[in-house]
Amino acid sequence: MDASDILENKLTQLQSLLSCCYGDGGEWFDAIGTAHRDNIMWIAADLSDDIIGFTQELLKRLHALEQPKAEKSTVGIATQMQSSWLDRNHRTGWQSGAE
Length: 99
Fold this sequence. Notes:
Blueprint: H1 3-19, H2 26-31, H3 34-65, H4 68-92
């Protein structure tokens, strides 16, 4: 399994896990107690750390394949992706390591 397959799997796992924490799953999440909620957030944090690592690895590989002229556009895409992610999480109030 290569990094892109693992990344896709981790993203799917994180999406499913977090779907238990809001919307229709919110009541369940509230009812499971503090210890289980903390463990779920710990799992989510570990998954997101893995996703960051695999994303960085894939971007390095992509960057290595690009010709010098195209390297600037790859950096621009990565910067746009990071900026978009930061903007989205800033709007939702998400903070790494919060409580």
